[in-house]
Amino acid sequence: MSKERREAVLLPHQKEKDHLLDLYRKMLLIRRFEERAAEAYTQGKIGGFLHLAIGEEPANVGTMVALRHDDDVFTHYRSHGHALARGMDPRAVMAELFGKETGVARGRGGSMHLASLEHHFWGGYAIVGGHIPLAVGMALAHQYRGLDRVVLCIFGDGAVNTGAFHEALNMAGVWRLPIVFVVSNNLYGMGTAIERSSAVTEVYKRAAAYNMPGRRVNGNEVLEVEAAVRAALEQARSGGGPSLVELVTYRFRGHSMADPELYRSKEEVEQWKAQDPIPRFRRWLQEEGHATETELEAVDREVEATVEDAVRFADASPEPDPSTLFDNVYVNP
Amino acid sequence: MTVAVITYREAVRQALREEMLRDERVFLLGEDIGRYGGSYAVTKGLLEEFGEKRVKDTPISETAIIGAAAGAAMDGLRPVAEIMTINFTLVAIDQIINNVAKVHYMFGGQFRCPLVIRTVGGGRRLAATHSQNLEVLFAHIPGLKVVAPATPYDAKGLLKASIRDDDPVIFIEHSLLYGTRGEVPEEDYVVPIGVSDIKRRGRDVTIVAYSRMTVEALAAADELAKQGIEAEVVDLRTLRPLDMGPVLDSVARTNRAVVVSEDWRSFGIGAEVAARIQEEAFDDLDAPVLRVSQQEVPTPYAANLERLAFPSSRQIVEACLEVLNIRVGEPVMAG
């Protein structure tokens, strides 16, 4: 975006150096974490499905930093970036991917079921669209109790065609619940391009069907994402009701580690990679004088050390004790 | 202790009302539970007493009803969601099986889902999609508790227990039991989840049943008594966790068992109970365990066909005579 336009949309705190460096650090942490997780997957240390956020870091980070500490988050299965940006410990997240007792869900959930009560991070869900009604329910609870906490519910472009999306947004709209729906539109639902699956491809327009505002944002501009999500949260917080924010973004890798990507051209992927938002943001920070090369390199090194430490921790952690197989099937068995 | 004779419907309503008075976190949501007064009139008067915040009329959106109730439960409220009939739980089956049942386990114990889903089984002249008994779908799922009371006393006590339980409970009422009457204490009381109950003592044959079939089993026992056969009726009350204790004690004394359920025979509730009896009381049995259940057809509308389809005390009597080797001639097609 142009310099003038960027200045126009920024909130005051977004111009502060600490904040900008934090955004950079969070995006880089996600990138390096995901790269190492991919490696670990090929080494057999992570099993099942692994859905990487590489390329979607600005959408992840801008969304999560807009939240108040006690706002609540529900997200889908491509959620490592959301978890890390929310401040969950990279060690515990990596350990969860490795299926260890020290993982955020004690190894019981894996990549698709990250969660942290302390961080108001309510999961991590693998059924497309299945978590959206849960998020609406938590917003109902806030309304019931008269609290000013807001619920943020993140899902992808594929989820907007589910019945659960429809029912949940209608319920939020008719009851005017304090919830923000964030659609991470990376243009593909697994291997199906949005034009082939969706009667209306501009997802934000669907919000009108539920009597709530919808807006579309460039998901690769972290500051725009933050400003838009923050505005939506404040509207909900002050009793202005629910809204939908569509973030247009792109994942550089396949749907999951098993995806041979037969459904999109290499040229298209390369075009998006050429616009990689993290190096672009890094350059912008330097050009605008927000950070020096030395400061940025320090962040780069710190992030790499953090990720390596997370892998070491996960490697060294024990698997769950077999005697705990039946833990937590019931609260009172 | 004071006791009143009330209907099953009234017993459920009293439980809801008393728990809402007792705990401000308890609230109700469902289709037409408020201004309409409930499609089976169970929630009549509750909107007027508690207001729209605590008695919420919902859109026709079972997925959202259950999902929202689960999300509110995760946040620490204690919702009681009504799904108008158990047939409609199928719309929300993903929410029930993949969210409600699993959030406590799969996130390492961090979250709870103290939700009660009230729903209604059976029907009369309502045809195939409005007459089902689908409890087996939920009894199969680790993480859920499933309760199906047969009497007003059990209904009130078990609903209170369900609302107070920190685990998710599927509470299954029966459309043809709402008008039945029974003694219910006026003071607060709870019937524990996971405890079967011997409703009638007898030495000759054990009949295991639940919900409406308990009533049919008791009627069958009265018929058998005229022939000098004393049947013991064990009412399961809870389907998951299944309390086999009283069942096995009974079989140890009678040596013969008939399991009755209103669902279909194949892979139904009776299959589990029969399997458990033969696993755990094999040496006590003098005959195979027979099952009485619904004929393997979608429920027909025509009155005569429906009567053939649903199990009744007549089939229970015949199955008991069969296991007692009393019947001579054609073996009974018991369900």
Explain this structure to me?
The complex is a heterodimer of chains A (333) and B (335). By secondary structure, chain A is of the alpha/beta class. Chain A has a single domain (14-313), classed as Thiamin diphosphate (ThDP)-binding fold, Pyr/PP domains (Rossmann fold, 3-Layer(aba) Sandwich), CATH 3.40.50. Chain A has helices at 3-9, 17-42, 57-65, 80-85, 90-97, 132-145, 163-175, 194-197, 222-237, 266-274, 277-287, 293-316; strands at 72-75, 121-124, 151-156, 179-185, 188-189, 192-193, 214-218, 243-248. Chain A has a 6-stranded parallel sheet, with helices on both faces. In chain A, strand 7, helix 9 and strand 8 (243-248) form a beta-alpha-beta unit. In chain A, helix 2 packs across helix 3 (57-65), helix 2 (17-42) runs parallel beside helix 12 (293-316) and helix 3 (57-65) runs parallel beside helix 9. Chain A is globular, with a radius of gyration of 19 Å. In chain A, 51% of the residues are buried. By secondary structure, chain B is of the alpha/beta class. Chain B has 2 domains: 3-185, Rossmann fold; 197-323, Rossmann fold (3-Layer(aba) Sandwich), CATH 3.40.50.920. Chain B is built from 12 helices and 14 strands. In chain B, the strands form 3 sheets. In chain B, strands 3-2-4-5-7-6-12 form a 7-stranded mixed sheet, with helices on both faces. In chain B, strand 2, helix 2 (46-50) and strand 3 (55-57) form a beta-alpha-beta unit. In chain B, helix 3 runs parallel beside helix 4. The relative contact order of chain B is 0.12. The interface between A and B is large, with 47 and 42 residues.
